[in-house]
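testing teh design pipeline on a random one, pls ignore if ur not involved
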């Protein structure tokens, strides 16, 4: 029995999960779960990275007591990073991608290098919080800090460094920076020169599936564990999730559904033409140098942050409560653009939704159910717009949507997605990111031969639910109205 340990960090929590493989199927066993809460200090929003590393060590200890493990892999969200000094010490806690320092940075970068050229090189969707723009902000506002930095490590690679002492950049997470040349698979000299960024702080790029090293001697002694290999899995959680999409087809459309909705397809090469740039689609690197051609959509964050606001007001709704209230509300009253800037930052999201509806001349949601219904329907309609855009860019049609991740628990959203997009939705697995992490570790060790073999194994071993589209005429009318507010 092969046992590998996967650490998966999301925007609000992290898990340590053992994947046991008997040669035919993968079984998951969670050994540790912990919160991942950003911390506001003054005017800066930080990640509590040392606490998170403490939780990694607790996960290792619990996995040891659970029967041990043969390797470790770590995946996290994209774009954020830590800076090390000349002694390899962390200069400060990594800053959260939702921090206000990033606002307006895309436009400032475009004054230094045309957006068309940036996109042709990197193929990455323009978002203020991309690593390139975070670094440009540092250069402008905190040049002394950037001047002290001798190495930049993206979040999964920072944790790998804490475990092994090795400084690398795993390819999938590196592509989220908007500093990788997708043609060469390495850092782009043109991007760093144009933005005036210190290229020497960028570590060597390695491919997912590479064994980076083993647990350091200090950790072996502290935790009482052997020199276990640490594998660079697809460090970007989206790419880990894509590895576990249970598709039979070579050409398939997927949504990795969670705090963010990552909607796209897998291609053999980047697509960086005029249509792709106009639609602001990203080309992220994946396992085996595949390309995830996808669009980042503000996903269940809208509900998560709204629920936090209602909790602050003393209304402790469960997500099941919110789904029930939405079902009771009248359909198609109001729509929002889920990606409007007003919804990007923490705060009173229900009030921001009400303001958006008021400013656009729509009925303002008056109840919790109306607000949640507005969010659900707007997300489903944004998925349809994205499906059409992806099909237009690739010249292909996708007759089914594969939805993976935590959002597969949200049955109402899944049915609305099928209704809106007019195609069946296959939902599952819930633990796609963890399964993808484990799959790459098993590929690295040679226990599984190919991604296709791993996907077939997941398809046969995980419960999948299909949602059939309904109410097409009503959705056609709703879609025509929704497009007015993008």
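output:
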């Amino acid at each position: 029995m092969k046992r590998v340990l996967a650490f998966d960090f999301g925007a609000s929590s992290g898990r340590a999960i053992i994947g046991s493989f008997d040669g035919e199927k993968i079984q998951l066993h969670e050994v540790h779960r912990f919160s991942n809460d950003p911390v506001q200090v003054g005017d800066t929003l930080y990640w509590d990275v040392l606490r998170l590393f403490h939780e990694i060590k607790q996960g290792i200890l619990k996995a040891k007591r659970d029967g041990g493990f043969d390797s470790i892999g770590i995946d996290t969200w994209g774009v954020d990073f830590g800076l090390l000094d000349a002694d390899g010490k962390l200069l400060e806690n990594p800053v959260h991608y939702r921090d206000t320092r990033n606002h307006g940075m895309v436009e400032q970068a475009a004054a230094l290098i045309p957006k068309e050229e940036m996109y042709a090189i990197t193929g990455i969707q323009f978002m203020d919080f991309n690593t390139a723009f975070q670094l440009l902000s540092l250069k402008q506002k905190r040049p002394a800090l950037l001047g002290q930095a001798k190495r930049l490590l993206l979040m999964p690679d920072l944790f790998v460094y804490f475990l092994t002492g090795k400084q690398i950049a795993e390819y999938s997470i590196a592509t989220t920076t908007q500093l990788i040349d997708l043609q060469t698979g390495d850092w782009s000299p043109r991007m760093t020169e144009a933005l005036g960024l210190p290229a020497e702080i960028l570590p060597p790029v390695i491919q997912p599936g590479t064994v980076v090293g083993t647990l350091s001697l200090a950790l072996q002694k502290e935790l009482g564990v052997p020199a276990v290999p640490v594998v660079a899995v697809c460090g970007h959680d989206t790419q880990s999730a894509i590895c576990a999409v249970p598709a039979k087809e070579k050409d398939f459309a997927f949504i990795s559904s969670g705090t963010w909705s990552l909607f796209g397809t897998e291609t053999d090469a980047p697509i960086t033409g005029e249509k792709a740039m106009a639609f602001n689609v990203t080309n992220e690197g994946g396992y085996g140098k595949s390309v995830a051609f996808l669009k980042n959509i503000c996903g269940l964050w809208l509900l998560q942050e709204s629920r936090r606001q209602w909790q602050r007001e003393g209304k402790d709704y469960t997500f099941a409560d919110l789904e029930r209230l939405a079902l009771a509300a009248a359909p198609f009253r109001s729509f929002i653009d889920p990606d409007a800037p007003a919804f990007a930052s923490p705060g009173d999201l229900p009030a921001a939704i009400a303001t958006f509806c008021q400013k656009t001349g729509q009925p303002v949601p008056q109840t919790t159910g109306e607000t949640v219904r507005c969010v659900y329907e707007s997300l489903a309609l944004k998925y349809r717009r994205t499906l059409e855009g992806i099909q237009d860019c690739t010249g292909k049609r996708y007759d089914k949507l594969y939805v993976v991740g935590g959002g597969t628990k949200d049955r109402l959203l899944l049915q609305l997605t099928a209704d809106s997009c007019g195609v069946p939705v296959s939902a599952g697995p819930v633990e796609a990111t963890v399964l993808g992490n484990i799959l790459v570790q098993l590929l690295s060790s040679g226990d599984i031969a190919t991604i296709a073999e791993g996907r077939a194994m997941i398809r046969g071993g995980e419960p999948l639910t299909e949602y059939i589209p309904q109410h097409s005429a009503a959705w056609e009318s709703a879609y025509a109205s929704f497009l007015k507010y993008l």
